[in-house]
Amino acid sequence: MLKSRQRRRAVIAGVVTVATAALGIGLSTQFASAQTTLRGAADAIGKDIGVAVSYSQLMNNASYRNTVASEFNSLTAENAMKWDATEPSDGNYTFTQADAIVDFAEDNGQTVHGHTFVWHSQTPSWVQNLSGTALQTAMVDHINTVANRYEGRVDSWDVVNEVVSDSNGALRDSFWLQKLGEGYITTAFQTARAADPNADLYINDYSIEADNAKSDRIYTIAQGLKAQNLLDGVGFQSHLILGQVPSTMEANLQRFVDLGLKVRITELDIRLQTPADSAELAQQAADYQRVVEMCAELVDCTGVTVWGLRDGDSWVPSVFPGYGAPLLFNDDLSKKPAYTSTLNALGGDGTGNPTTTPATTDPATTTPPPTGSGCTAQLSVQSPWNTGATYSATVKANQALTGWKVTWTWPGSERISNAWSVTGTLTGATVNGANAAYNGTLAAGQSTTFGFNITKNDGSTASVPTVTCTPA
Ligand code: G2I
User: Fold this and answer.
1) Which pLDDT belongs to residue 381?
2) Ligand 1 atom closest to 308 (CA)
3) Of all protein residues, whose CA lies closest to atom 2 belonging to ligand 1?
4) Integer angstrom CA distances of residue 241 from 244, 271, 323, 324, 340
């Protein structure tokens, strides 16, 4: 089975790669599009834009849930897949929280980056009190059980997390190293590879964004694992400080790509001294833009995950007193300047006024647009899965418009579960949609997009009905 990220890339990645190479310039200028969500913009360039989510917020907070669904195409469990959450006592696995997050991602057509199997932190004391064969067996059992449970549903795993120390690039002097020796890293990867051969396997760490002693050590480990076909990618956590995006970050990512590995920004946040003033928020926006552009322009960078949704969700203030506000959304879910710069870096312009029509259509799953009316619209399936699909819709104005309406009827069991950049009555067999406040005004010839997820009966093909578009 193709993984959902691979499916999404299959539709559009070739276009972006070729065009970027041919023009030799950044995506953010040439591919500025009508995309008005991070998700829409990331989908259009074949990247993951992810967020670390909290189980309790996802369960209890509808506006949190809606924003996670509409703005992100990839999820990481901030805590729910860690060892203390999944196997709090020996052999007793608790998957309620992790399952709920994976279910949510599946319902919303999102990929999942799994975090994490082997770490020195958030590992229960019953594990830390083991040694020798018993500890190794516990590690192997844990990886097997968790990887098998999510096989085919979690796209990639942080197999080991933070195994290098902060001094001189030595291996971290954790209980793992002390009790099992450095071979525990290879064993963890061998176990994960055998348990889920289709998942991408990552080594993940912080303070390795720059070319430094720590990233040098990760490089050496990565080389060894890659040579044994046990490693697919390197996760750069990127817990950064305002104004301190490392100058060597781009070249550092590139040297890992040159090893034949994927790279991923796995836990991005950019902290500042609170309260933030407008100059600091502007600097933060520039820093985000730089990091996200780096990934957008690097074909083998799979995506960027931000480590939390709203500033108030962040781990930062509890660990760095006086620092915070490191994320893209304020606590009321209003968008910070860093949101807009991230959208721009992904190629969206946030205005609803495209400079190009996004090249996201797959002829096999696209209906020909009807001609001759004030506007035309067509649907295309971006990523189908067994019980649902993500669609992108393009509305094109044939005359100047101040608003538009679209309607279609599903031929089968398909029903919209959530949608973005469109309003109206959307959930029934007949869909009556209309522009959002920001994407109704189009000059003749311009187009804009909206998107939605559907649910459907297992196994049925996601259909592509003909859409009627009328000026409003
Ligand atoms: O520390 C930031 C991140 C560094 N890289 C690995 C990540 O896994 C790590 O995430 C943080 C979470 O954001 C925090 O939410 O990991 C922390 C634990 O080391 C998480 O904090 C813990 C609190 O310390 C616990 O008191 C709490 O019970 O979260 C737990 C669950 O809410």
Assistant:
1) 82
2) 13
3) 315
4) 5, 5, 9, 10, 19
* Among the listed residues 339, 317, 319, the one whose alpha carbon sits nearest the alpha carbon of residue 327: 339
Taken in order of first residue, the domains within the chain and their CATH numbers are 4-345 (3.20.20.80), 363-471 (2.60.40.290)
How many CB atoms lie under 10 A from the CB of residue 302? 29
pLDDT score for 360: 37
Retrieve residue 304's tokens: 């960027």
| Ligand 1 midpoint to CA 316 (Å) | 10
Q: Of all atoms in ligand 1, which is nearest to the CA of residue 314?
A: 13
Catalytic status, residue 297: no
| DSSP 8-state symbol, 351 | S
Are 436 and 450 in contact by the 8 Å Cβ rule? The answer is: yes
Q: Which of 247, 239, 241 is nearest to 269 (CA)?
A: 239
Whole-angstrom Cα Rg for the chain: 22
Active-site residue identified among 71, 78, 87, 267? 267
pTM attached to this predicted model: 0.75
Per-residue CA distances from 457 to 12, 366, 373 (Å): 27, 21, 34
pLDDT in tens, 309-321: 999 999 999 999 9
Task: Tell me which residue of 356, 337, 333, 347 sits closest to 446, measured CA to CA.
Answer: 356
Q: Which residues of the chain have pLDDT under 50?
A: 1-31, 352-366
Catalytic residue from among 162, 209, 293, 414: 162
For β-strands 200-205 and 233-236, DSSP reports them as parallel
Average pLDDT, the chain: 88
The amino acid at 382: Q
Is residue 267 annotated as a catalytic residue, yes or no?
yes
Instruction: Give residues (CB < 6 A) around ligand 1.
Output: 78-79, 121-122, 161, 206, 237, 267, 315
Residue 40's CB: how many other CB atoms inside 10 A? 28
238: tokens are 């990127």
